[in-house]
Amino acid sequence: MTVRVQTEPFDAGALLTAFSAGRLTSGGIVSFTGLARETTDGAAVANLELDAYPGFTEPAIAAMEAEALERFPVQDLLVVHRYGPIRPGEAIVFVAAAAEHRRAAFEAADFLMDYLKTRAPFWKKETGPGGERWIEPRPSDYDDVKRWS
Amino acid sequence: MAKVLMLGRLRDVAGWRERTLDTPPPTLSALRDLLAREDPALGEALAGKGVQAAVNKAVVRADAAIGPGDEIAFLPPMSGG
After folding, report:
1. Local structure of A80: helix, strand or coil
2. Average pLDDT over residues A99-117
3. Three-state SS for A127?
4. Would you say A76 and A30 are in contact if contact means Cβ atoms under 8 Å apart?
5. Looking at beta carbons, which residues of chain B come within 8 Å of A123?
6. Looking at beta carbons, which residues of chain B come within 8 Å of A94?
């Protein structure tokens, strides 16, 4: 169970390789990488900036991992989340789940992403030709997270 | 002395992210009132839907007590991923 909140870019492939190493009792690992898009709803995005609250954001994500561990028979979880300025094409978030059987790993990764989208203490600002815009969860994000209640 | 933090869009509305108060009011609601008197636009944003507050990095109720040495953060709706 690991949480990392960082401003530095990360290599999702390297994270997955490191997370997978030496797992002799895991039957499967599921990972998800979230990327910054070049366009949102057809509008160009030049830059994305995430605000975080260090010291508050990490424990909130750790609590999500603890809940995922209670709900699904997973062996280990990793969440790496960036904040600060992020360029289109760069990774924002990486989630990995290791389990003895694949279903739990798929579900835990799905659950963590739905929770991160609506409950993780980050605030997103997009900058494009039309200026700056703060992004809040979409109605569909709230619908997604309701699947787990 | 207490520290007040504005996260996300509240930072842009306020025009500041962090500020210290030499003598903080006794409650969170009194602090909101104080901030709203100084800056009505910020007051309106703080009263907006889904805005939460944390004292010393724990989310608290709107009428929580605050005191010297506390760190009070105002948090608009969150969105990661």
Report:
1. strand
2. 97
3. strand
4. no
5. 7-9, 76, 78-79
6. none
Question: Which chain B positions have a beta carbon within 8 Å of A125's beta carbon?
Answer: 8-9
CA distance B28 to B45: 15
Q: Token match 């969105």: residue?
A: B79
Asked whether the beta carbons of residue A53 and residue B77 sit closer than 8 angstroms, the reply is no
For residue A128, give every residue at least 6 positions away whose Cβ sits within 8 Å of its Cβ, in sequence order, or none: A43, A44, A45, A46
DSSP for A39-53 reads: EETTEE-SEEEEEE-
Q: What would the two tokens of residue A76 be? A: 């280990």
Nearest CB among B7, B57, B79 relative to A118 is that of: B79
State the pairing for strand pair B71-75/B52-55.
Answer: antiparallel
Q: Is A12 on the interface with B (CB under 8 A)?
A: no
**Phi, psi of B20, rounded to the nearest 5 degrees:** -110, 145
- Cβ-based neighbour number of residue A149 at 10 Å: 4
CA B47 to chain centroid: 10
- The ipTM (two decimal places) reads 0.92
- Write out the two tokens for A68: 């995922």
Written as six digits, the tokens of A113 are 């992403």
Span B22-42, average pLDDT: 96
A121 → chain B, closest CA residue: B78
Say what the pLDDT of residue A39 is: 79
Q: Label the pairing between strands B2-6 and B18-21.
A: antiparallel
Tokens of B48: 């907006």
User: Residue A127: which of A83, A85, A93 has the closest Cα?
Assistant: A85
Q: Measured in Å, how far apart are chain A's first and last C-alpha atoms?
A: 22
